[in-house]
Structure formats: C-alpha cells, structure tokens
What does this fold into?
Amino acid sequence: MKVETPFFLSRVGIRSFGLVVCCARLPIVALAVLSYNQVTKQLNEQAQKRLKQAAKDVGGSISERLYFLGNQMKESASKLSTEFTQAPARRGSGILKEMFKGLAIIADQGEKVLLFGDIQPIPKLTPDQRKHIRSGGICVWSNHFSDFKTHLFMGVAADPGRPERGILLGEISPTYLWGPADALAIPAMTELCILDQWNRVIFSSLPAPAAFPEQVTLQMSRSILGQFEWVHEEKGYVASYQTLSLPADISMPKWTVVLSESKSDLLAPAAHFKKIFPLVFLLSVWVVLFLSMVQIRRSLVPLEKLREGTKRIAAQDFSSPVTIRSGDEFEELGASFNAMASRLGKQFTALTTMNKIDRAILSALDTEKIIGVVLTRIPDVFPCNHVSVTLLDDNSRMTGRTYTESGTADRKMTVETVEFKAEEIQELLNHPESIVLEAGGTVPGYLASAVQSGLKTFLVLPIILKKRLSGLMTLGWSFESKNHTQEDSGRARQLADQMGVALSNAGLIRELNEFNWGTLEALARAIDAESHWTAGHSERVTKLALKIGRILGLPQEEMDVLHRAGLLHDIGKLGIPIDILDKEGLLSKKEEQLMREHVRLGLRILEPIAASHEILSAISHHHENFHGGGYPNGLAGKAISLGGRIFAVADSL
It folds into this structure.
C-alpha cells in the first residue's frame, strides 16, 4: 500500500493514529514494559535461587560424604586387631584407600602405627579434639603446613572401649571428597570453592587461586548463607554460599561452600529474553501499526478529498466538485459539500461585486456618479430586469427624480420627474426594509412608467436619512412570481444603505464646499471693505482670472486654485493703515513702500493654514513684472508662477 504524505501529515490522521496509540498501543506498551520487567526480574531471581539451591545441595553432598567417611572410620576402628604389631599392609580395607591418602593409629604416647599410605606430618590435636574423639565422636579439621597445601584430617577413637589405645587418624583424599563434580551435583559451568573457618580456600575448581574481597569474607563470617557478586580474573561472577551442617557427633570447624557462576552464564536466560522480547514486541507493534494505518487511510480517503475540495474553495475555485463513492455518510457529506460549494460560489461572486460597488459608491462624491455605479453594477449581483434610483427633492419632498439606465449600447442614464403622494411616502416610512409590489394590484405613481414597460414584480427599498425619506431603489422583474431569496433581499438592503451613506456624504461634501466658498467670498468682501476704493475688487479680479484660466484650458483643479487665490490675493491689505488705502493723491515713497508690504503680510497671514499652501505662489507673485520690475522679489519671466502671471494681468485691468 502506498501511504501518501498529505494523508500521513493530516491532523485528523494524526489524531486518529494518536487515538489508536492511546487506546491500544499505550496499554500494550505499558503491559509489555511491565511484563518485560517482571519476567526479567523473575528469570534473574530464578537463576539466583537455582544457584542458591545448588550451593545447598553441594553442601549437603559434602556433608554426606564426611558423615560416610566418619562411619567408615568407626567401622574400621571396630575391626582393627588389638595387636599393634600386625603388618600395616594387611590392615585397612580397599575402600578406605580410595577415601584416605593415609591411615594410622596414633597412641597417646605419640607412637604411630601406619595402616596404609603416609601421613606427613602428623597433625597435633587440641585438647578439645582429643576429648571429643575419646567420647566416641568424630573430628574433622584442616591444616596448612610448610608445603603450602591444605591437608584434611579425620580422627576417631581407635577403640571406643579403651581410649588409651589412641586414635585412628586419616588424611582425607581431596579427590574423593570434592569429586567427581557430577557426584556432588555441581551444575555445569559452575565453580566450587570451599573455605575453612578463617575463610582460607581449602578447595577451588577455578584454574587460578580464588581471592574474595574483604567485604565478602566479612559477610560470610557473619551469616551461614547468602549471595554476593565478585570478580575473578576480570570476569564477573554471582556466588551463593552455605555453611556445612553436620550431625552433632562430628566436630568440625566452620566450612563454607561457595558456588560461583559467571554472570553471562547465570543470566543467560534473562539476556536471551531481553534480546528476543524487543524483537517480538516491535514486530507486533509494526503489525498493529500497519493494520491501523490501512484502516485509518481507508476511512480518511473521503476526508482527504473533502480537504482538497476545501482548499479549492479557499482558492476561489467553486467549479470543481468532490467525488466520493464510499456508500456511507461520507458520500452524503460529499453531496452536501458540493451543494455548499455551489452556493458559496454564487455568494462569493455576489459579495465580490458588492464590494466593488461599495468601493465605487463610497469613493464617488458626485451624486450622479454614485447612481450611475449602482445602475451599472447591480444587475451583476441581482438577476433582475429593471433597476432605478429615485431621489426626493430637498425642498418639496413630494417630487423626485428617477434615474434609470437606458437599454442602449451607450448605457446612458435617463432622468424622469415623478410625483409622490403623502400616503405613498408614509407607506415607505412604515416599511423601511423593503416593500414587494405586484403590477396586478394598486401600483404607486412613482412606478407608473416601470409598469408601462411590462414589469410585473417590484422590490422597493426605501433610503431613509435622519428619519426622513430621501429616496428609494427599485428592482423589477418581468414575471409575477417571486424570484429572489431572503438573502438577495438582504444584500439589496445593504446596497441601498451604502448608497444612502454615499449620497449623504456627497451632500455633506457639497455643503462643505459651498460653505468654504462662501467663507472665502465673505473674507474677500471683508478685505475690500477696508476702503471704498477697493470695494468688490477681489471678486472682479477673481472673475477675470477665471476667464483667463478657461481660455488657457486649465483643468478644474487649477481653476479652483485660481478661484481661492483670487479671493485672497489682497488679504495682506488688512495690515495696511486705512489712511494709506483711502489717500486720494499719490503716495509718498515711504507710503508706497509700506503699501507694497501687503504681499508679504498676506503670505504671513496664510502661511500657517496648510490648505492654503497651493495658492501662496500666486498670491506672492501677483505684483511681479514679466520684465523683472515688479515686487516684492523682482522676479522675471517663467520664474513667476502661472497663477502669479494671470493675476498680474487680471489685477491691472
């Protein structure tokens, strides 16, 4: 199966996979970890118990052999001749020769009668050992002589009825006592060490002498059994020790059996389990993972198609439906998705067009431009046969102008005057959202021409500003049945509101412009009112300058600059004394110089007003002479602005 990257990286795929992991794999993993730890622990414990039991068994075997040796010694002692002069070679049975390296009778006076083998040197017995032997007991001990070898001895009374006849002493054969290994039940790959009461090694199966750490020997001195780990020749061992337990009639110093097995051998089952278990676990996890991914992918293929379809919708592609044939709820979801995509496509087209209409409306400041945009673009949003906009006159409020786009190729706008009745206006105010009218009923007079053109159904949208009816927008259809949805009506209402806001803004801008021009004209009259000689001068110069501008073909923006500059070009005269302005005769040089300062004074007055900066050059240059003889800067030719040159001419006429 080919696993596609988008599916694997999808959030639903990851969430589904995570759900499988949380609900199935995590418990399995937890159980596996717990089982792994428990099985490993149990294998290790079983291995240690096995080693401990082996040490106990070996100790028991050695104890049995010592007990058997003691019984054989007692039996041999009872069969011995009462005469010590018998030939040594004839004394002692063959089985004793396998058990002992030598056998002899030691009298109290130190005389030795060798029965077989050799015992060199003769060990010295302690008083306690002699006492125990004379009481009929058995003594076992070890000695280290100058040959650095460990010698094992066993002694019994030569004649229990006559203790003065001495003791029967034998040097135990290590071959019989410690071997063979199978007879002692020593497990394979296990090493045996026997320690005496001083924790010196009596016997060791290790090739090199064993040396236990000090803390280990201290541990063995304090307890009769236990386990420890140690290292011999750079190899780690796990050891179990057990103190030999013998019957009461056998007196023997403390001997400790130490059974050691290398860690690698002892823990081999656990190590093997540790190696096998992860592989088995991973295999099972991968099988479950594979099956889960197969099932998840089969479930997410329809979702992937829906996701791709959503991306296409996000990219404004509404014409590519998704195809799902899963025979389940996903197929139903796919059908619903396609229906939604088709509806969204229509809505997106409508919203895009609405947005363009809104921007065009709100960016226009001219009433007819605003209405023209609405009449041109609204058929792209609403499939209708007729669009008209009616604006009520500001004065009468009972008449209005209906704007309709002609059906000709040039798409010109026609204007018709309509009359309103008081009840018609009240009806519109009572239904501020919309009114649906049918041609078969009573149709208002303002729709008469539309009805005559064959329209049957109308959607009238009142435009109300400041609680007064300012106009209405009408959509018409040539059939009687309603062919628009509630959503269409909502968008039409929104567009009518936007148009109302735009018309209101245009009216405010118009009023503001009229106020500004009126303010400028009033200010010009105030300037001219300083002297009866200058009355109406600024307005006359402005009219002449505008005529010159029109002859030159200046654009409207520059004509507006000329208009404002003409009304304010002599504003500096407000700072000239009235006696100079009203003087009938010629001005003196000083007075003329002061009079010329009105240009600089005007610039100083207007300079703080940011909106007046574009007229400053015309005001500053209106007394400059083209040949350079003017004031205040004596500019000449094209160094004088065009506005300054126009006003120099207009001001001289």
Observations:
- Residues 433 and 461 are 6 Å apart (CA to CA).
- The longest strand covers residues 468-477.
- The first helix runs from residue 5 to 9.
- Confidence is low (pLDDT under 50) at residues 1-5, 81-92.
